[in-house]
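Re: the 149-residue chain
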Amino acid sequence: MPIDFEKYAAKGNEFMNQLAKKLGDESDRIHAARILRSTFRVLRKHLTQEESMQLLAQLPMALKSVYVEGWKINQAHSRIKTIEDFAAEVIQEEGNAAWRDFSNVEEAIQDVRAVIETLTSYVSPEEMEEAFGTLPKEIKEVFITWIPS
């Protein structure tokens, strides 16, 4: 059975279009890709390895590659407690490009929210809640409120 790369690309493009729309500019998929990559990198730092694997299992193939790109599985986790700490890490992940995407932490929080809300179209609410259950309490509570009922 041949691998249908076009199908994988179509699902990835569908996700990116939805994310770009939630971020406020349907035509700026490059911005959406930077936000997605940064959010995934920070998220995987704070989820357990098991939860990351369960989340990965439900992601479209193209997004799996974004999630695992450059991942050092046994990487030490920094201690964060608030959604502001999480957003600050997302900004930091952007490096020199951060100035193009974020003017402040609140904007980064809204962009992270767009990623989480877009993920809910592809990952079951139960899996999202289970994965986020391993995050610090305040972050978990914020993320769970972003999951549509």
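The chain has one domain: 5-69+77-145.
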